[in-house]
Structures
1.
Amino acid sequence: MHTHALRPHGRLLLQTGLSVLAFVAPVSAVLFWLSIPSGNWQPVAIAQVVLLSICALAFLSYTRTIIRVDAEGISERGFMGMVTDFSTDEIGSVVLLDLYQSGALDTHPQLFVTGTDGRLLVRMRGQYYSRGAMDTVIDQLDVPVVRVPEPMTLQDLNRARPELLYWFERRLTGRGA
């Protein structure tokens, strides 16, 4: 039995880091430029240290995020560090569908591992995980697979299977309906 370790795309970390840097560097430079002559640069330096600490913590959390899957079940260590384990006895099915990005014609695959009671156990978003990683989960877990043939919007998914969405997604799409 071979356990597969699935990690989110590394390019997201690079893109996010570059975006933060593109915003923070000019703002910090201006704040230091304005505060150094008056001698009030210490609060800016403290803010920089706090910001760098938050960025380092986010980097560490992202690199520790992992999904492990084998014939025995699936476990996930999420971004916030919480670890959840589910054996194949607890897994009812896997749902695979393409979800439209909001305001775009592009879709991303979404994989939902649901329990025997229908509740969401693990979710893999195409923004973070490759289709190949999702196929690995399907291949490893010997459970029924529901493949939705047509892409869906978030609102469609909310109407059809709201239990697959996070609470904040249900609430937001519920307002627009």
2.
Amino acid sequence: MDTATTPIGRLRAALLRGRPGPGSPLADRRASLEASVGAEQPGVRIAPDPDGERIVPDEPRADRLVLHVHGGGFVMGSPATARSVTAGLARACRAEVLAARYRLAPEHPFPAAVDDLVAVYRRVVARCAPHRVLVSGDSAGAGLVLAALAGARDAGLPMPAGAVLLSPWSDLGSVAGSPPADSDLDPMIMAWQLVEMVELYRAGRPAAEVSPAGLDLRGLPPVLLQYGDAETLAPDAAALAGALRAQGVEVTERRWPDVVHVWHAFAPRLEAATLAWDEVGAWSEDTWSRSGSGS
């Protein structure tokens, strides 16, 4: 039961109290998000990088790298604001994580973010064998992973060993046409924000044209897709899993009960987040082993 006495209930209550109201200025929301960044994450060290920042766990595997794309609805966020996710990735995968920096809308609408991420990926695979690389993303960042990998494929670049998609948001057309209803079960997502983000990102282009879900995704590497059944965007994630399979992509789809959008960020106080990271670690180990970068 979801009550104020359970960890997920307390989390939902706190998120509901902190939700910005409709029409809150984007600049204020950006500043609030950046101000919430923690200086340290246990078990990792953080260092600047020309492409963002590096998150290195204790005793990392030297032959492995995870390239991560942060969420924020294409208009907010940074490598720093993703540290609760990238630190979890680094610990789970026992690998260095490169959290990529990319340009944000509305100052830089589509396709600026995709172009930036293809360029970062090009630099990564120029210095690290592709079979030793995983690419990951959370929320809109997971959608950008798909767009960047499709762009890299079209540019003739080799694919990584696999991709990890955490609570992906990929179908911008459905949001623009019919926004989902707000839900107290997933206070991380508000319909008015989704609509605003799509409008700012597409900058007058048809929403379907800029939507990662509408891309040709054939030839992409194996995917781990995690999302929660109570998430506002759960139908989006489920449809994406089906679309990937229909295009011949190997998909491991994990639908978690009673969690919020990108619940991974709330480890270790949320047990489901810790367990989700355990699953990411096991999947990444298996994927790297099959690609030729195993123990």
